[in-house]
Amino acid sequence: MLSVGEMNSGVAHVKREPVADARDTDNAWVENDVWAVFLGSRVPEPSVLSHNLSWIHWDSDILAMQDREYVSASFSFLDSAEQ
């Protein structure tokens, strides 16, 4: 288990963010965990390449603002880890 801010074998635990939910109690609550996986050195699966993929830019309006923030945080984390 990686703590927030740690990276091992190309997997990083970027952030953990509490989410307000009507079901929250003193002992149970909802959190979003954001993880990043570095795939730059991996060979793509041939089965994936045979399908038609539709790529979108990570900052596209098709993603919710919160999702864009999570992706941005993941890119920032991986960029800082490479240096």
Write structural notes for this entry.
The chain has 83 residues and is of the alpha+beta class. It has one domain (7-82). It is built from two helices and three strands, in the order βββαα. The chain has helices spanning 46-49, 65-82, and strands spanning 7-8, 11-19, 30-37. A three-stranded antiparallel sheet has the order 1-2-3, covered by helices on one side. A hairpin with a 2-residue loop joins β1 and β2 (11-19). The longest helix has 18 residues, at 65-82.
Q: How is this fold's topology laid out?
A:
Blueprint: E1 7-8, E2 11-19, E3 30-37, H1 46-49, H2 65-82
Antiparallel strand pairs: 1-2, 2-3
Organism: Gongylonema pulchrum
Protein name: DUF3179 domain-containing protein
The largest sheet is: 3 strands, antiparallel
Output the helix-strand order. EEEHH
Beta-strand proportion: 15-25%
Task: State the secondary-structure class.
Answer: alpha+beta
Whole-number average pLDDT?
A: 82
Runs in which pLDDT lies below 50 for 5 or more consecutive residues are: none
Number of domains: 1
Helical content, roughly?
25-40%
Shape: globular
In short:
Helix content is 27%, strand content 23%. The chain has 83 residues and is of the alpha+beta class.
